[in-house]
Amino acid sequence: MAVIKRALISVSDKQGILEFAKNLQSFGVEILSTGGTAKLFRENNIPVLEVSDYTGFPEMLDGRVKTLHPKVHGGILGRRDLPEHVEAMQKANIPNIDMVVVNLYPFRETIANPSCSLEDAIENIDIGGPTMVRAAAKNYHHVAIVTDPKDYLVIAREMTSSKGAIGAETRMMLAKKAFSHTAEYDGAISNYLTSLTANGEKQEFPNKYSTQITKVMDLRYGENPHQKAAFYRDTSVPDGALASFTQLQGKELSYNNIGDADAAWECVKTFDVPACVIVKHANPCGVAIGNTMLETYQKAFSTDPTSAFGGIIAFNREIDLTAAEAVIKQFVEVVIAPAVSAEAKEIFAAKTNIRILTVPLGNKLNTLEYKRVGGGLLIQTPDDLNVTPAQFKIVTKKQPTPKQLDDLLFAWRVAKFVKSNAIVFCGNGMTLGIGAGQMSRVDSTKIAAIKAKSANLSLQGAAVASDAFFPFRDGVDVLAEAGASCVIQPGGSVRDEEVIAAADEHGLAMVLTGFRHFRH
User: Fold this and answer.
1) Alpha-carbon distance 383 to 366, whole Å?
2) Residue 488 sits in a domain of what CATH number?
3) I need a surface site. Which of 335, 365, 400, 417 has the fewest CB within 10 A?
4) Is residue 499 assigned to a domain?
5) Is residue 368 part of a domain?
6) Is 491 exposed, middle or buried (0-12, 13-18, 19+ CB in 10 A)?
7) Pairwise CA distance, residues 430 & 428, whole Å
8) Is residue 118 domain-resident?
9) DSSP letter (8 states) at residue 196
10) Tell me: the pLDDT tens digits for 369-414?
11) Which of 358, 377, 406 is the last residue of a domain?
12) Catalytic site residue 226?
């Protein structure tokens, strides 16, 4: 056990540092500090020795040089178990520094400001901080490195139970976090600087891309039982993202569970009104809106009861008793919602294998989306485009009614989350038939009609969304034959005139959005 006798504290984020310093003081730890941190300690009557007084060398170059001194780094890096190190430190009058408490200049926060200049960014690149962090982490056998304010309480408790010492296991844990901390910091700097052109303009994507993700859990298995898998979380999780889930009950999650859960959650949270989305193999197989969670579930389930078997169910409101009672009548893999009522929890508890996840509701998307390919990575901005009726271009002789416009908007919202080629029939706030992932748009249309027929749902008067343009009129012919009354699609085909003429022929109203929503 390494007893802490001297600590160097220099933090940008001062959250919890006063209480931690007082805890160290209670163990008789001498505190060294710099600049603003030392000033804060003096103002709160915590004894502190300025690093400049400790080294005998003043801060210089506007604070750029203050801890870069042999008396600081010798005290951190010296090995207590090597006689030659001990002798060299004694000759140079360098005392041991047993703990380093450092977090770095707020580089990420600085560049997040739209008005941040290159000069601002450069001045918020920490030099002395990362150097001390890496030195202390390298010498973790003898030095405790603390970079995360969340660890202050853990350390204080261990020192209390160990008479001022910190054990090897904790020091190793802290060192791992420290190296990850500096790696993330340097990655952010690299991303920022390599995204700038020679004249200082910001590119969408950096020339070198670095990211840090943290393992949350090992998964039950991968896409198939013979594959291994783990789930990782971004350093910064957007508000409302699936990665912030809490599992209330159920079996371990698998790779497919999380992938499908994300597809369901991303779709359901886009609705402002109560909604339910059922996903199977990454595709919505039923989507509905309504007045209650029970109503939304029943409507969504009725779209395709066969595919809903073993599906993922997402709600955008708290699950109540009546919805829970309906859900457990079917075989379900995962249920997701912002909250689950106490009564609903009791109902779900009877089916211990059902995985129940809660996720705080939010509508922020990931900054970037990734897809791994052989030897590389595809990166894109998220598909966050939502069109409004004001952007619609009505191109047929027949004009859509207000109700049809509502149905078209609903269908368009759903189609955005269906694998291409996507065709979605909707009406009265629910999906009626979904055709997904086909190589031919005509085949997707036929499949959607077959699905509706299998579920005994009428497509007469349905609104239809197509995620991309119709390359030929045959797709329009098929959906008209199925009973559609109106269609929404991006347009942009060289045969748009032929497609529009087909819609007029069948007496359909057609709306163009000007934007497609391929999803692969």
Assistant:
1) 10
2) 3.40.140.20
3) 365
4) yes
5) no
6) buried
7) 6
8) yes
9) B
10) 888 899 998 989 888 888 888 889 999 999 999 999 999 999 999 9
11) 358
12) no
